[in-house]
Design a protein that fits this description.
The complex is a heterodimer of chains A (about 325) and B (about 325). With about 325 residues, chain A is mainly α. Chain A has 15 helices and 2 strands. In chain A, strand 1 and strand 2 form a beta hairpin. In chain B, strand 7, helix 5 and strand 8 form a beta-alpha-beta unit. In chain B, helix 2 packs across helix 3 and helix 3 crosses helix 4. The longest helix of chain B has 18 residues. The two termini of chain B are about 20 Å apart. The chains are: A mainly alpha (about 325), B alpha+beta (about 325). The interface between A and B is medium-sized, with 23 and 32 residues.
């Protein structure tokens, strides 16, 4: 390529204008055979990585330290499954409360009112600055600051009060801590998503006579979801794993229970493996869910949606059944419909 | 009837609207025409309520809407860049204004079907906007705006993002649509051809002010000033006059030129000029000329006249302005 482009202009300059432009390859020359570029270093890399992977897998299988029988014994015990339930409960509550508060905070940050804007900014600033574990311990000890919580008018009469420790069990403190922490991050993600929707969409909606709140819920938010979702999914997954921090409040979630068990039987590694595998399984499920939710909100953003892995597999199989040589073409055709 | 009174809008020290007053009769198709930055879009957006005025009032069919948000003005608005709701199908886009008003489903469906047929998208109801061409998207946007039975239809450079062929097709289609639907329509455009083609009234804007309002023929033939004249078509500086290039007649000899029946008062008579270039433009031929004084101007003559004259570059011809659309000075009666 380089040779061609370098030679051409020079050659043309030297020719009189009437002469035909010089061709780089005469017509009678044999057709060139295209071969893939050879890259020996790729193969060296592949070999090195393959050896490392093999060593790792071999280690997993043969190293007695992993203690697979103990792993198998504890993997699905009632205690572990129950603890897993608590972990999921914490994740769901933390996510829902966190994102609801996040939407409110994002709306405040985008509000035309400077006071609401500043409060939202300060909230996000504060809760992003405090490590989750520190915050959780604060909530756990809230009864030390406020022995009872009363319900009534601000600075006015009270209708009744509850002892703080009754209202905030350890689990309540954990959910609160996770949700408040999550809200700060969710608010920024949601705000970014809202900003990514073109102002014209809102104008078009208001020209159609749609009230402001409806404009947000029916027009802006569904379109913002597209840029919110990947980040939000990240947050949910990180919150899910973040629940392990809650073990400092002695809540019987997955990580805490595993610690309790290996505290009794000293089989640290296999029990950590139990927690690890459960975390991996659930994160995988979340990722699959994320794929389909994102796909749902991608409607209309491109001419055709990419096929799901299942559809891809099905077309691949169908194509294989009918004609092997045209497999690629058939796949594409199947995708378009 | 839309009435705008003393509308003023400043962006910093720049006056986008400088005390604009305008009446738009019910059922008309009015074009707001002007160069970019003339305030035409700001005026349209103030009628819609998408832009607030610093002072002045807007009334729509007798109702003062100056302080009403767009959703309470009974308008339909079409944007240059379609503003299609990307996450909804064509059908849902058009139906949206009705579903949000909780109209019965049967009524909504009927209305949507009717509109999709009018705009020629009946086969596309389940497509998403991304699967439509620009022209189709804009027709969908038009159907969406019409679905809520607006009192006025406001179009902000609706064909600006489309290619030339689709543009002409769509504007003629819009003209026919307007003849069918009769909704008061205001169209913003910077294209004088588009304004002359579709509108029955044109308001020419410049620097936040209205220069002239009238029907296309009046504006073309009796422009209030040189700005309007220059904006509505090409002009030639002929002596101390501005004339339309097609109102210049070329003759080989001076006597024939002098004998021409000049309908223009104060015509400077016959100008002797040298042909610099002859450019065939299809039906017409443009002749670039240089007068004795050194001033350059262009005449536009028919192909046949050009053939009769057998003009060649460097030859001398005698030019004379005829016709009525010359501007010598601003007629106070026509000025707004």
């Amino acid at each position: 390529m380089t040779t061609t482009s370098a030679v051409r202009p020079v050659a043309t300059d030297q020719q009189p204008a009437a002469a035909p432009p010089p061709t780089t390859r005469p017509d009678h020359a044999p057709a060139l055979t295209v071969v893939p570029r050879r890259n020996p270093w790729t193969w060296v890399g592949v070999a090195a990585v393959a050896v490392l992977v093999a060593m790792f897998v071999n280690g997993l299988a043969t190293n007695p330290g992993w203690d697979w029988p103990t792993f198998a014994r504890y993997f699905a015990t009632e205690t572990v499954i129950k603890a897993l339930g608590t972990t999921i409960q914490l994740t769901v509550l933390g996510t829902v409360a966190g994102f609801v508060l996040g939407v409110v905070l994002a709306a405040m940050r985008l509000s035309p009112n400077a006071f609401l804007r500043s409060v939202a900014w300060a909230y996000i600033w504060a809760f992003r600055s405090i490590p989750l574990i520190v915050q959780l311990l604060f909530w756990f000890n809230i009864a030390y600051l406020y022995q009872s919580i009363s319900f009534g008018l601000p600075f006015g009469p009270s209708f009744g009060s509850v002892a703080t420790n009754d209202l905030f069990g350890a689990l309540g403190a954990a959910v609160l801590g996770l949700a408040l922490h999550q809200a700060a991050y969710a608010a920024e993600i949601i705000r970014g998503g809202i900003l990514s929707v073109d102002e014209g969409q809102r104008e078009a909606a208001s020209a159609l006579g749609i009230p402001r709140r409806r404009q947000f819920l029916r027009i802006v938010l569904p379109q913002a979801m597209r840029s919110i979702l990947p980040n939000a999914a990240n947050e949910v997954i990180s919150l899910f794993k973040g629940t392990s921090i809650v073990s400092v409040l002695a809540i019987p979630e997955l990580f805490y229970q595993v610690q309790v068990i290996y505290g009794r039987n000293s089989r640290v590694v296999p029990l950590l493996l139990v927690a690890t595998v459960w975390y991996i399984i659930l994160t995988t499920l979340l990722s699959v869910g994320q794929y389909y939710v994102e796909r749902h909100f991608a409607r209309g953003s491109s001419r055709t949606l990419p096929p799901t892995p299942l559809q891809r597999l099905r077309t691949r199989l169908a194509a294989f059944g009918t004609s092997t040589s045209r497999a690629a073409g058939t796949t594409t055709a199947g995708v378009a419909r | 009837m839309i009435t705008v009174t003393d509308a003023r809008k400043n962006y910093g020290s720049f006056a986008a609207l400088d005390d604009v007053s305008l009446d738009i009769p019910s059922g008309s198709l009015t074009a707001l025409l002007g160069p970019s930055g003339s305030g035409k879009s700001t005026l349209l957006r103030s009628i819609a309520g998408l832009e607030g005025l610093d002072s002045g009032t807007v009334t729509i069919e007798g109702r003062d809407v100056t302080n009403e948000p767009p959703q309470r003005r009974g308008i339909g608005f079409v944007f240059q860049h379609y503003a299609a709701f990307k996450h909804m199908t064509v059908r849902d886009n058009v139906a949206f204004g009705l579903t949000i008003r909780k109209r019965p489903k049967a009524e909504t469906d009927k209305k949507v079907d009717e509109l999709l047929e009018i705009v020629g998208l009946d086969g596309f109801r389940n497509r998403y906007p991304a699967q439509l061409s620009g022209g189709q998207r804009q027709r969908m946007a038009l159907a969406r705006a019409l679905a809520v039975d607006p009192q006025v239809l406001l179009l902000d450079e609706p064909f600006g993002a489309l290619d030339a062929k689709v543009r002409t097709d769509l504007r003629q289609w819009l003209r026919r649509l307007h003849d069918e639907v009769h909704v008061t329509t205001v169209l913003v455009t910077h294209d004088q051809e588009e304004a002359l083609d579709v509108a029955d009234r044109i308001a020419v804007l410049n620097k936040g002010r209205i220069e002239q309002v009238g029907d296309p023929v009046t504006l073309y033939e009796r422009p209030a000033n040189d700005f309007v004249m220059g904006f509505l078509g090409s002009v030639a500086h002929f002596g101390d006059q501005l004339v339309r290039p097609h109102d210049i007649v070329l003759e080989r000899d001076r006597a024939t030129a002098l004998a021409l029946d000049a309908k223009v008062a104060g015509s400077p008579g016959v100008v002797e000029a040298v042909v610099e270039r002859v450019v065939p433009l299809g039906f017409e031929v443009r002749v670039d000329l240089r007068a004795d004084s050194g001033a350059r101007f262009a005449a536009q003559i028919t192909r046949r006249d050009a053939a009769d004259l057998q003009l060649r570059e460097g030859e001398t011809v005698h030019a004379r302005a005829v016709g009525r659309s010359s501007v010598v000075e601003v007629d106070p009666a026509l000025a707004i």
